[in-house]
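Throughout our pipeline, every protein is held as a single compact record rather than as scattered files. Nothing more is needed to write down the fold, since each code stands for a local backbone conformation. The record that follows is passed on verbatim for readers who wish to inspect the format.
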Amino acid sequence: MFERPDVGERAILVHIDFTSHDGSEDPGEFRELVMSAGVEAVGSVTGTRKQPSPRLFVGEGKLEEVREAITLHEADVVLFNHALSPSQERNIEQELKCRVLDRTGVILDIFAQRARTHEGKLQVELAQLEHMATRLVRGWTHLERQAGGIGLRGPGETQLETDRRLLRARIKSINKRLEKVRRQRSQGRRARKRADIPTVSLVGYTNAGKSTLFNRITTSSVYAADKLFATLDPTIRRLELPDVGPVVMADTVGFIRHLPHKLVEAFRATLEETTDATLLLHIVDSEDSRRDENIEQVEEVLAEIGADEIPVLQVFNKIDLLDDFAPRVDRNEDGVPVRAWVSAVTGEGLDGLYDAIVERLAEDVVHHFVLLGPADGKLRALLHEAGSVLSEEYRDTGETVIETRLQQRDWQQLLSRAGVSEESVRLETRQT
């Protein structure tokens, strides 16, 4: 009978390159994941196969190599940089007599450590329970067989079935509570939409510097560190932008290569801040050798959650780590900002980024010179109330020319409140 070992903090890392698979995992990134989980990687085993073994994922020879590494380094857990099936995990553990976790299990462990808010903890627990549901049987192998003999015959897997029922009940309870969170978030988003407040959501590969940049832009103090998934819970801040007015900035969880679908589903409530955003700031680690691949991974997740149609401004961060590179803003053929090069740590390029954000959000800003007569006092008062008056020029005729700059939607609402049609407003044409 195999009793499942406890998890330890000394790990052997296993990475296999499969020649029949495209887009294999990055062993360097996996080591960063393990470090972020607070586990000491005392050894590693690598190899190459055409395809995974259905039973043990690796071959008998490679498994023996892992067993020797466990003995040599006195390791108590083996971490695979791959997604293992429940039966593969169970079979490997039975062979090695050592705790085994796959890539998803490591990510879930990091998420469990990082969650701080009630919502974040619920999302992590849901992902863990759904992951555990397919692996529950291996922890109860002593209940798999019916006992024989008088007085010993019974229902067999009663304890296992009880655990499964409790697991399903807990998952159902968490889903209900998360649904309540979704409704609350939805109400907040509807309120912002009614007030016409645009939302700017920061997205990007994990450890690209999103939280550091978020702190710079919003003068906040969100936790930021040089580790994967340093920030898990979403953070929302409000700030004022010239020509745009109030804007909501949202910092979201970082993405990662081959992000498990269970995690995408569990964090859908958080990611909805991204799907309803007015503009996405896609933060990219410009110094990362795999930055192009990371960009593709983020775009895949954005497509998966239905956010691939939202306007994007790429922000290439960490230019302070590049040689002889100055901050700049790249524009497309129409002159629209599409990419900003900055350093969130030193502050280089942040002014250009700030202007690019304003420009992208203020694409529907109108700039008018309005000619007002003595009878247009209400319109004049509303323009001042909106804080959109740039200058005011008085004429001997008693008329006033007001230079105003505001969003097109605000201009329409303002005219409606003043009871004035757009056709009746007298505008002067000037070079601006």
About this structure: Confidence is low (pLDDT under 50) at residues 1-5, 138-146, 148-153. The radius of gyration is 29 Å.
